[in-house]
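Long-time lurker, first post. I've been practising inverse folding by hand and with some scripts of my own, and I keep getting stuck on stretches where the structure tokens seem ambiguous. Below is the full token string for one chain I'm working on. Before anyone asks, I'm not after the true native sequence, just a reasonable design that respects the backbone. If someone could post their per-position residues I'd love to compare against what I wrote down in my notebook.
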């Protein structure tokens, strides 16, 4: 059986936004198996659900990048997947983030395969990137040592 998966956003919109994280060392997860393999690794894995929305550009991506650049303690692995584009990967992330509802953008931290922290869209929207970064640095200090 052939399964047709339709993406919500054209590649020309998404690729520059993906590049903002990938060019800074984030592994781009596009399939369910890539997501599973990334989060089950021993140690800590940060997974950023990237998005085309303004709060992703204005706070989420810049905040995550500030946290990674400025935190003395960092996750072992940094990954990203794009909502509305990496359909298979995001569907797997949605399973793994339960009991949290779907959210994009969002920032998830897994430790030894278990979700230990999630920053949802409502915690990102309307907040400056510096505040997001400060919060993430605190989360890293708590879980990434």
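-- Answer (accepted) --
I ran through it position by position. Result:
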């Amino acid at each position: 059986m052939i399964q047709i998966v339709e993406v919500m956003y054209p590649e020309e919109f998404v690729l520059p936004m993906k590049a903002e994280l990938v060019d800074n060392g984030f592994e781009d997860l596009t399939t369910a198996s890539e997501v599973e393999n990334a989060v089950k690794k021993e140690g800590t894995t940060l997974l950023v659900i990237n998005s085309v929305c303004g709060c992703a550009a204005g706070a989420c991506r810049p905040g995550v990048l500030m946290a990674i650049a400025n935190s003395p303690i960092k996750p072992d692995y940094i990954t990203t997947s794009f909502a509305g584009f990496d359909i298979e990967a995001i569907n797997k992330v949605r399973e793994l983030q339960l009991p949290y509802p779907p959210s994009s953008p969002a920032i998830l931290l897994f430790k030894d395969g278990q979700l230990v922290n999630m920053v949802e869209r409502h915690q990102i929207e309307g907040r400056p990137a510096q505040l997001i970064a400060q919060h993430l640095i605190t989360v890293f200090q708590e879980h990434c040592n």
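A couple of notes from the structure itself: Strands lie at 27-28, 44-50, 77-82, 106-111, 114-119. The chain has a mean pLDDT of 93. Happy to go over any region you disagree with.
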